């Protein structure tokens, strides 16, 4: 009787490859290398762009059911509600009419004054309305994604507002969408000034669920609870005089270098659905060279060696 | 009537039941659906409670089909999730690779337990993975998230019984003798 081969796979240890532990070590180290490359050097933005474009159709497909539900909801919106809203809007329109009528004249006057002062127009009518697609899933950051990207001319660094104030800044641009980092994101900085006193400071986000605070402000600075903070415009990213936040709490400890000033954003931040992206401010004149500082440093070191 | 009730019954497979190997396309399809579910827009409470569907499905296949889905696959899927989430590159990849490794360790015994006890063990795995991500991000300079950070892994574990039943259906042997 002829020996027939037994129909089984080759023993498992022949084709299973490296042990799970070896695989884990390999892929774990690879992940850590990636994490390091991404946090430290931002090498991987190109890959992210390509992969983001590939994933875009999926992301849109996922949103469709929600959009359909919202559309049906709108369609069946209560007629009485709409009528009420109409009346309200008419009243608001009438109330704003004088302002609206005065606007062309004001703009003309403003233009003339600007020309007189030889100031560059900081930003023109470059605002683009965008809609929030979804909130970032990452619980560690405060980001939203909006429905316009490279194809609409959005660029990283542009300021994002809603109807009440500054929401954040465009940080990444994909072909058909863009990522907006909100002012509440950790260490997201907005240069501000206090509307009442003109004191300049920088507003820093503190992460999810925590109030942004004004850092590097002396305990003696002229700040009061309820003060409104406007963008100061000195960074060239945010156009000046946009409302950002309101001071809600001040802790002055003279023993410390700076006061702790908690604020509340005036804009809807992560609740607004429609946002406005403002084009980059006109390039500010180049910052003057700072030879003095490096000289000081060198001199300081020299002295140190001598003394 | 008997046949219909047999087809639509959602009783989980008993540990003694030998499941057929899954079709590779089915594994791929379920992973894709989980990825899409992860990308679905949400806000408010849903956002805070939304589990990582992909992690749960991945864990299921790591346990049920270790030949198709292992540490390497999990790592790659994690990389895709990193792009979809715009998080740090390698964060989900590392988490899923560790999850797959832990699953390989757990796999031989976890299926002997009833589904709700499996869910408890899955909860431990998912919470540990979330903890790993927390450590990685904390080193990277991220702020501590709110306490709701612990909710998604728990919800994910609660989903385990349902997902197991759904995912094992195509692999259940057809019971010809039942007629």
Can you tell me about this structure?
Chain A has 307 residues and is of the alpha+beta class. Chain A has helices at 12-15, 20-41, 45-75, 79-117, 291-306, and strands at residues 128-135, 143-146, 159-161, 166-173, 178-182, 189-194, 200-204, 213-215, 228-231, 243-251, 260-265, 274-278. In chain A, the strands form 2 sheets. In chain A, strands 1-2-5-4-3-12 form a 6-stranded antiparallel beta barrel. Chain A has a 6-stranded antiparallel barrel with strand order 6-7-8-11-10-9. The longest helix of chain A has 39 residues, at 79-117. Chain B has 179 residues and is mainly alpha-helical. Chain B has one domain (20-172): Arp2/3 complex 21 kDa subunit ARPC3. Chain B is built from 8 helices and no strands. The longest helix of chain B is centred in the C-terminal third of the chain and has 25 residues, at 115-139. Chains A and B meet through helix 2, helix 3 and strand 1 of A and helix 2, helix 5 and helix 6 of B.
What would you say about this model in short?
The complex is a heterodimer of chains A (307) and B (179). Chain A is α+β, with helices and mostly antiparallel strands.
Blueprint (SSEs and pairs):
The complex is a heterodimer of chains A (307) and B (179).
Chain A: H1 12-15, H2 20-41, H3 45-75, H4 79-117, E1 128-135, E2 143-146, E3 159-161, E4 166-173, E5 178-182, E6 189-194, E7 200-204, E8 213-215, E9 228-231, E10 243-251, E11 260-265, E12 274-278, H5 291-306
Antiparallel strand pairs in A: 1-2, 1-12, 2-5, 3-4, 3-12, 4-5, 6-7, 6-9, 7-8, 8-11, 9-10, 10-11
Chain B: H1 2-8, H2 24-39, H3 44-49, H4 53-64, H5 71-85, H6 91-110, H7 115-139, H8 151-168
